[in-house]
């Protein structure tokens, strides 16, 4: 198993993984559109011994109350069904967090299962008076500060790119 930053040749494998993992086209189309528009801050892939993509984590820019603060959103995160339960999601997320930290990013937000993302160091964003645009998601909207001062004086609406507003 190899965990690394995605390269252009990975795109078809990422697309296929996302279509399998999410039983539809929404996440695959989202990543394709983000990539085409230059809005993928970071993509991390896991490949098996044959070089096939079996895991993926995408990170793209978010703003807080319209202000760019070097924050990104983690979405989507996918692991091929045959590789689940082996800690691969954790490895993908940690590789992404480490890389983003090295590049000077301040925080990562995600919308996901608190029990899963809590194991990766994410905490409820609401405790910092942060929210996302989608109703009834407060318990699932999470943050992982990378910089010590990432949350100083920051509160309000965390805004994802408009590509995230389409129906999945």
TrEMBL record:
Pfam families: Acetyltransf_1. GO terms for molecular function: acyltransferase activity, transferring groups other than amino-acyl groups. CDD domains: NAT_SF. Keywords: Acyltransferase, Transferase. Residues 1-147 form the N-acetyltransferase domain. InterPro entries: Acyl_CoA_acyltransferase, GNAT_dom. Signal peptide: none annotated. It comes from the Bacteria. Belongs to the acetyltransferase family. This is Uncharacterized N-acetyltransferase YhbS. It comes from Buttiauxella izardii.
